[in-house]
Amino acid sequence: MTTSTTSQRGELSSTALALIPIAIAINVALGHLVQSVLKLPIYLDSIGTVLVGVLLGPLAGAITGLLANVIWGLTLAPSALPFAAVAAVIGLIAGYARQYGAIRSWWKMALAGVITGVVAAAVSAPIATYVFGGVTGAGTDVLVAMFQNLGASVLGASFMQGAVSDPLDKTITYLIVWAIISALPKRLLARFGIAAQ
Amino acid sequence: MQRTGLFIERAGFLQRLNPLTKVTGALLLIGATFLLPAPLTGAALLGGALLPLALASLVARRFLDILLKTLLPVLISLALVQGLFFPTADPMTIPVGPLLFRRAGLQFALDTGSRLLVVAGAPLLLFQTTHPGMLVQALIQSGMPRSIGYILLVALQLIPAISERAVGVAEAQRARGLETEGNVVQRIRGVLPLVSPLIVGALVEAEERAMAIEARAFNAPGPKTWVRDIPDPPAERLARIVMLAALGAIVAGRVVMVFD
Lengths: 197, 260
What we know:
Largest sheet of chain B: 2 strands, antiparallel
Oligomer: heterodimer
Largest interface: A-B, 69 and 76 residues
Shape of chain A: globular
Structural class of chain B: mainly alpha
Helix content of chain A: over 70%
Distance between the termini of chain B: 56 Å
């Protein structure tokens, strides 16, 4: 399978250039919508990142995640900025999931979601600990308090909080992306180098 | 003029500086808060650098307003979670009403909180006093890939439009009977009808945008010219070198301390 992320000179292709900013805006808009309209205990703020990773590969996915958090952090929620590295890793894994053909079945996408969630929890725990002292001002702080009360260190409690929240959030994210891609017209998918099934 | 995020158009001190000088300054402040002892450094940088700069740039009220609005929940949570549950062998506690706060936990919360104010405040002030277009242009001219600059600018412009569309989709689906209230399972089932119109529309739009990019030869090789000129006086170049040297000295000082 060839990826259409980069042109011959190593620059981002025009398709990547067009899709990435839209995906970033979707991350921010949906993350906000899900938390304020549906009031769900998950974030769903990486749908755009996973979508780009799965459609265009690891490099484009990582760039989407990184820049999404940079923009979100600099405009609406400063607390998103230090987690830009986590978002980049999420996009990277989504890109590799594409290369392993995860898009062909829903359970492979769910598995990719669980893996992404665990890795995201592991990468974000040190950031949550050393930048934020373990809390982010969201509802999940209750979990951190609980794990610390059970005897965990700040770092340990931050990881356990992530390990509870992230795999669920990322699995739902991947399944949403799978459902949408499966419903797309073949002509559109061909533009992203995904052969019709 | 389209909404460009945090930027406030005023004729103050920071607004006249080259964006690169402000980026360097923000990096220096963030580096210093993490490497020098808390909470004193955080308090000193906030009171001695960020606030006077915000005042001189005529954005002090908006600066404090946004900084506190976004950080207050984190700070309160920090004091409660770490004040009450911080893992420590230190038996010292401070009773506040029925609650027993741990001294080491409050110290930890104070250290982290003071750092957080600078880490969030420095970029906030940078963006309140710098037009995003100027910032991206200055970054590209000093070596950032053009494609990254393009993505940043377009995303900044698209966020209000896509947010508006997301709210529109939510309202349209609710008019068709979609449950956005009720128990968690019902609300999770509401996610897909909200998300899919948004994303399918975005993919179609991306295809059109890709053709527009190709038609304008964005990826063509060769030198590009700029419409605007960003002034960069020698004094500011010198200031940047001094700030980078200071940051280097702080890092070196910390490394020496670790190996001492």
